[in-house]
Amino acid sequence: MHIAQQVQARLFPHERPPLATLEYAGVCRAARGVGGDYYDFLALGPGRVGLAVADIAGKGLPAALLMASLQALVRSHAPSHSHDLGALAAELNRHLCESTDEAGFATLFFGLYHDSSRELRYVSAGHLEPIVLRRQAGVGPRSNGSAEVNGPGVLPGQVYQEHRTRLDPGDVLLLFSDGVTEASDRSDDPFGDDRLAQAVSDRADQPADVVVRAVVEELDRFTGAGAAQDDVTLIVAKGI
Q1: pTM of whole model > 0.85?
Q2: Over the chain, what HEC string results?
């Protein structure tokens, strides 16, 4: 297990490709030493960065193995499919359907941010939709577009649709796994979207990495002492 933890730690990004109009940071904390959540930052050309969040079915070592496989697939296919993110999700789905049984599947968000236009193109394959906090409107709703029903590995031949949004200065994009919003307190009250959005909004003037750490600390206070219920993954990206 210790070796698995060391290997998985090296799979997460250790560098953030610099952007002129976006500041971003992320964290992933496994509930059982190793886990099935995954996030990544991919340099995909000058001024273009891929943002990925995935949640593998299950926990522990089996989920961690599938997570490593999905990470390798994303990194190998994203550069050649960056022009069509729906096709990227379909290709990942094809590979996972061929290499796993019906219990091995994932949900995936993959976005490609363009520095020059401030545009985020993204596909949400069964994953929780992102939350965008708009500077002009305070705590805002989820961004446009709905998640496709099936994530990679569920049904062969699934079609995925690309969506688009824009991140202006002061806007904040939140990408997360259900381990954040579904974490519950002693009364089984979930942390939820609203608490997450408020926790970030209260710290909107702080650097992204500070916001990430503060949200995780607030989540821990909310759930109280004891073992984590699920893997926790969060990316905060701020328009600058």
Answers
A1: yes
A2: CHHHHHHHHHHCCCCCCCCCCEEEEEEEECCCCCCCEEEEEEECCCCEEEEEEEEECCCHHHHHHHHHHHHHHHHHHHHHHCCCHHHHHHHHHHHHHHHCCCCCCEEEEEEEEECCCCEEEEEEEECCCCEEECHHHCCCCECCCCCECCCCCCCCCCCCCCEEEECCCCCEEEEECHHHHCCECCCCCECHHHHHHHHHHCCCCCCHHHHHHHHHHHHHHHHCCCCCCCCEEEEEEEEC
